[in-house]
Fold these 3 entries.
Entry 1:
Amino acid sequence: MSVEEFEQGKEWLNDTFHLIRRGEDDCLPSVKWVLELAKAAVRRYRVRGLVIDPYNELDHQRPPNQTETEYVSQILTMIKRFAQHHGCHVWFVAHPKQIEATSRI
């Protein structure tokens, strides 16, 4: 790859992808915070895809009287409405914990 091709590739990446992230010292972002910034990106840059990665590092403040299933359903409904309203696909990436081997070969 030539230097010119490399620079063109960097320019394409900057024009195509828009990162939403908090500073390292900031608290974990909430789903609402992500969607507010995503809404601005949809309007400003015509973004049509949102990848939330990793989902498990979002700030999940579930009310004590709400089950985890109800909470996840509420979040998914919020994301679905955002996607439908803004014509934007949304993907969640979750990184599960390492599963320990329970049997030995």
Entry 2:
Amino acid sequence: METEHFDAVVIGSGNGGMYLAWHMAESGLRTAVVERRWIGGSCPNINCLPSKNEIWSAKVADMVRHAGILCADEDSVPVDMVKVRERKRAMVTAMVEATLKQYENSGAELIMGRGRFVAPRTISVRLNDGGRRMLTADRVFLNLGTRAAIPAVPGLRAARPMTSIEALERDYVPPHLIVLGGGHVGLELAQAYRRFGSRVTIIQHGPHVLSGEDDDVAAEVRRMLVDEGINVVEGVETAGVVGRSGDEVSVVIRTPDGERLVDGTDLLVATGRIPNTARIGLDIAGVELDENGYVLVNDRLETTAPDVWGIGECCSNHPQFTHASFDDFRILRDNFAGGDRATSDRLMPFCMFTDPELARVGWTEKDAAERGVDVRVARLEAAAVLRTQTTGETRGFMKALIAKDDDRILGFTMFGAQAGEVLAAVQMAMTAGVPYTAVRDAVLAHPTMAEGLNTLFANVPP
């Protein structure tokens, strides 16, 4: 088999990898991207954007159901999941087409197939349409992504549960959806399906949903879920599963009072992710993994193999966000041009797209306590922001952590309408290193949600 040499090969076409490939190709380097299935990665195909598309459809359904404030018939428009799915698929198709066009414009070659290392920086690709190609490269980038984890619970795999992929392809409203996992994905989809009309039960192994957040944040999110009619079961162990998702399925949970059954019709597993690093010859390439199978990288994204880098969520201790992957691209681009950027230098935000949203950047109160750092905490109820009085979206609160000995903003959390947008303003202040007083005294437009930042930071204790 003839060996083809490239200046750079990216394995996986997720966000950071594809932008890096386009940049290198436009810079005159012969560049190839090897992708098994999802052109553009999981974000535009099966994760971030499709889920937010259907979450928005669920919000529309919820607004229709509450149209009684305008004297409309609240039950006049049943949810048609086929149309929900069609709307989502149309968006995905348009984004994939735009991605393919950018490959064409950049000059980067997209190779559809499964890549496996057969020697350092040498990849054998089994093409999806038959045949093989052998590639070598001066530089290789591992943009491998992750997939949903299925816990080793007796009967769970046999029940053929949904992951987020299948949940976004339903053409019917499940009569009773059971969600295993109280993290971001589980809560977003639980609320969406409740709004589509499903009865929903969330089963959380830890003491409360959103185990990484402060207790007051998790409690407020839980109240929202319960108020929408979702059954939230926390602090239990999943002991077994019987039946088949899509028909009849029962989850055996172990509580302090003994075992009991949760009966439903459909089962969604949202208990975390595992990296796509197995069976592709990384050991042959000299790439070491951590104890959980993630690619070991340093803060410049260099792996243990010469001239091999990691990108995105397949990397150890890496935020599993598309915006983190995109910044990986910028770090690599800048460092190849002589820069000195590192992942340790960045301030990473996140947003959970429930309604209302939960957004955070920087430390939580738990983080400050674990570090032994004294902080001042300011809090403002969302209802105190006048914008919420115009929309009725009064649920939630803002919270800021300020250093005890100076005026640095160490963290910001918001659970409320437009939280992701408000977050950006605080993140910019934190990035610039300005004191909280600059945000407190800024002239912010009225009536907006961001206007609440004036009042929030005016509440900082002395």
Entry 3:
Amino acid sequence: MGNEIIIGDRLRQARLNKNISIDELQQKTKIQKRYLEAIESGNFEALPGAYYVRTFIRQYAEAVGENGDFLVDLYDGKDEIGSESRRAQPETVQGSRKALHEEKSRTRTTRDYLPVVLLGFIAFMIVGVIAYAAWQDRNSDPVISQTASSLQVDGSVTSEQEQEQSSEQESTESTETTSSSEEDEMEVSMEDSTQSQATIQVTDAEDPLELEITGKNDRAWVGVSVNGDYTLQETLQPGQIESTTIPESTENFVVTLGASANVDLEVNGQEVDFDDPDYEALQKNLNFEVTYQD
């Protein structure tokens, strides 16, 4: 006894040299971690008994590549440091070389075979890809063997069909454009004209309406009222232009002209002809009736 510190330090150094953690060593030897730590610190009294001390020393030594029998003899006082090299004996090989090789082969772990398995899997995948490509080539042969004349006829028919469809589409678009422009055209006309009143009908108007009033010849007073409220009141000078926007969806409004001969009026850019040769161009109320595009 008395070599516990030496034994523990030697085992600990061997473990560190092999880069084995205490937790990994516990898994290898099945010895509780606290006992392994006790051995490394030389505290053998913490172990269950002398039998377990010798057993744990041998298991620890085997896991880290040390001579367990020598360390047990050292613990029992039968040997001392330095005598191990003097009494080292050649390792006895039991059985033939073939048997030894087979024994070592059986002890190989799955990790040793992993590169071989991966290489085999890669080779299998390459063979599979080549086989699939060859199968695709064989299946594509009938399509390639079609005659040139057949392809030419098909292409000709397709081209003619495309030309017919294009012509029909252009005709349809042209008809729709013409119909749309006809439907969208706004019309302005005067109805029921008298000396002081006139009804102006505006059909297919775009909402909202923009009025533009231009003065000419001489001064003229102008007023625009919607539902009795004036949106514009102005005395125009010759060449003066005023504009106003009629509120959306307004169907009726009134334009009052103080001297109608001195005013030009446009609705959404279209001129309003309110002159009546039967009456003198004096003060006149233009009652607008509007219908809008759907």
